[in-house]
Amino acid sequence: AKTHGRNSYKLYTADLNVQSSEFMALANSLHRALDRHEIRVFYQPLVSLQTGKIVGAEALARWQHPDLGIIMPNKFIPVAEQTGLILRLSEQILFEVCEQMRIWESMGLDYGWIAVNLSGQHFQPDNNLLEIVAKVLKETGIDPLHLELELTEGIIMQNVEFTIALLSDLQDLGVKVAIDDFGTGYSSLSYLKHFPVNALKIDRCFIQDVTSDRHDATICLAIIDLAHSLALEVIAEGVETQEQFQFLKDHGCDHMQGYLFSQPLPTAEFAKMLSDGKSL
Ligand code: C2E
Ligand code: CA
Ligand code: CA
Ligand code: CA
Fold it and tell me: Where is the EAL domain (predicted)?
């Protein structure tokens, strides 16, 4: 673990040297943003393909910058990753999401489950992910079944043994685990059966042309098949058209998210959609 730490430090400084002044400015103000809780959580509904109803949401970070307005995660997540602030940021988000779930529960809103994105840095042995998740669950008192953690294939492959042990500890706590952007990493499929996970998320790049590109269609069907034969749920990302929705429904995909149903929404708007019972 020590050697690994030294290597990542080298990467980290090398990367910083080639960064733009915009990067440096963001890095400086990200510290302040975390102190002032400027990172907000938006919720993108997850929808059952069978019923067309909301079954949950993915929590997505938005930086409400006092001068620059809303900054998207593609801009600041890489900054957070390279400065190590991603750990604090994710912890804030995890806490806010669980607090919000408790509020929704007190309002009698059935929000299903909420998925939170994690970074590879959480899966380094010294970063206490298990303890952090256990603490958040204990302090907010929410049922762990309502929380899902998303991680990419790349994260799993960086430290296979350790990650498998950590994921199975997380599952023992009762939280669910999903592999994000499935199919875009270069994970070995043979490992998949050993990973204690509950769901695969098909990346948007395979969904985009699924109704026109034979190869994309084949890949989606293979992922759905693979997931189901391993007793995992499948979620399609980035569904934008009725045709994509129908294709996925016809082929037994379980859930989807995408602009067809809704963009990521501020808390109050997501809550309103839930209470209105919006469905497709
Ligand atoms: P992701 O985890 O793959 O999240 C899905 C992204 O696809 C989101 O972008 C979402 O807004 C977008 N999306 C959803 N439906 C559609 C659609 O129909 N069409 C199109 N074109 N896009 C769609 P977003 O919110 O900009 O987030 C980008 C990435 O930033 C996320 O990709 C995730 O990797 C990262 N990210 C966001 N929030 C967090 C966070 O709290 N923690 C960490 N570690 N990463 C985060
Ligand atoms: Ca995700
Ligand atoms: Ca994704
Ligand atoms: Ca993606």
Answer: 23-278
